[in-house]
Structures are given as C-alpha cells and as structure tokens.
Amino acid sequence: MTQDELKQKVAHAALPYVKDVGIIGVGTGSTIKHFINYLADIKGEIEGAVSSSEGTTEHLKKVGIPVLDLNAVGPLQVYVDGADEINPLKQLIKGGGAALTREKIIAAASEKFICIADGSKRVDVLGAFPLPVEVIPMARSYVARELVKLGGQPVWREGCVTDNHNHILDVHGFSIAEPIALERTINNITGVVCVGLFAARPADIVLVSDGEQIITF
Ligand SMILES: O=C(CO)[C@H](O)[C@H](O)COP(=O)(O)O
C-alpha cells in the first residue's frame, strides 16, 4: 500500500467515532482530506463542522458540510486530525500544514481528540520532524535566537503565511525527552503564538494504519 492509501484507510476507520456526535471538529492535511471525502458520504447525519484552517473550510463547504464558528457552538464532543509525529503517550508534533494554532484551539475545546495517521508517523521520541512554531512576524528573529538558546536550529518557512497572518519557524535538532516541559517553555517566549507540540493536551485515541491493519491505542 502507498502512504496515501494508508492515509485513506485510516481516514475511513475514523468514521465510527463521528456517528451521532452532531458537530465535529475537523483538522487539516492530506489524511484529513480523505476523511472529509468520507464525511461527505454521511453528511445527512452531520450537523456541521468546526474547521481548523481555510483549506479545510473550503473543502468542507465544497462537499456540502456546514462550517460553524467555534464561538457559536459549545464544547465539541469529537475532534479528528492528523499528525506529523506520535509518541506512545499520544503526544504529537503537528503543524506541517501550518494550521497548528487553530488545530490546538479545537483540540483544547474538544472532549475527545481522535488522531489518525499512517504508520510512518509513530516514533519513540518526538523531534525528528522539525517542530513548527507559529510566531508574530516582527518577533521572528528574536524567537529564533531564543530557540537556539534551547538547543534548537530554527529555520524560517519562507513564503508561508498562516491563516492568522503569522510566520512559521521549523525547529530542527530537538530530541524531545520532556514534551510537556518544552511545550511550556516555548509557549513562554514572547512573540510565540503557538508551538506544534501537543503534549499537555495529547490525543485521546490514536488510529494508525499499518499495512492491512488499523492499530488503535
Ligand atoms: O498538523 C497538521 C497540519 O498543520 C497535519 O495534521 C499534519 O501535518 C499531518 O498531515 P498529513 O495528514 O498531510 O500527513
């Protein structure tokens, strides 16, 4: 199976988790694109979705699923999203698609965060995937220097402007032994909007497609 076929397979496996939940939080990325295509088949059963990015909003609308404002709905029962890396504690690196801030907001506002990914995303220790950090544009160089002091090698994702009109630094060289502590430390740097480390609020259920099987943990 190709990586894309594995993404499609795991996207399909997430469908039972969104049955009868009314309003769903929907993430961003190529795995989620498959998930939205499957949602389209059951759209009569879905009241609406809260979207984590402009790209996802466009896709949801295109398939006929109403997009709702998070401020107008209560806590969400279920949020489904992908990840760039997943450790055994269900802590994640996210933000490869630059949607980390809205993704983190929806994850925080959801009772259950279902993470779906192909098997290549599983790791023992987070950090081989460069850690995305969304920053206020004028703070980019300052934040980069602070990240160097923490042992990282930040690289500006040039040309990328987030949906919130900010910039992204991708931080190489971290082997993240203590994800919650690092998340807190980076959050405390002035000018950081969000770090793509989902550790204090990890996923609740992870579905991974590994060959023919779906592994759930
Ligand atoms: O965090 C994300 C976007 O900001 C995505 O969930 C992550 O990059 C995984 O993407 P894909 O499903 O394309 O592998």
From TrEMBL:
Instruction: Name its species.
Output: Methylovulum psychrotolerans
PANTHER family per UniProt: RIBOSE-5-PHOSPHATE ISOMERASE (PTHR11934:SF0)
- Which GO annotations describe the biological process of this protein? D-ribose metabolic process; pentose-phosphate shunt, non-oxidative branch
What the protein does comes down to: Catalyzes the reversible conversion of ribose-5-phosphate to ribulose 5-phosphate.
Catalytic residues at 103 (proton acceptor)
Output this protein's name. Ribose-5-phosphate isomerase A
Any one Gene Ontology MF annotation carried by this entry is: ribose-5-phosphate isomerase activity
Task: Tell me the CDD domains matching this sequence.
Answer: RPI_A
- Tell me the pathway: Carbohydrate degradation; pentose phosphate pathway; D-ribose 5-phosphate from D-ribulose 5-phosphate (non-oxidative stage): step 1/1
Q: Which amino acids does the record list as binding substrate?
A: 28-31, 81-84, 94-97, 121
Instruction: Please give the Pfam families that the UniProt record associates with this protein.
Output: Rib_5-P_isom_A
Arranged from A to Z, the UniProt key words for this protein are: Isomerase
InterPro entries listed in its UniProt record? NagB/RpiA_transferase-like, Ribose5P_isomerase_typA_subgr, Ribose5P_isomerase_type_A
Q: What family, per the record?
A: Belongs to the ribose 5-phosphate isomerase family.
One GO cellular component term noted in the UniProt record for this chain: cytosol
Query: Does the keyword field hold Phosphoprotein?
Result: no
* EC top class named in words: isomerase
EC number from the UniProt entry: 5.3.1.6
Gene that codes for this?
rpiA
Q: State the reactions this protein catalyses.
A: aldehydo-D-ribose 5-phosphate = D-ribulose 5-phosphate
Q: Its quaternary structure?
A: Homodimer.
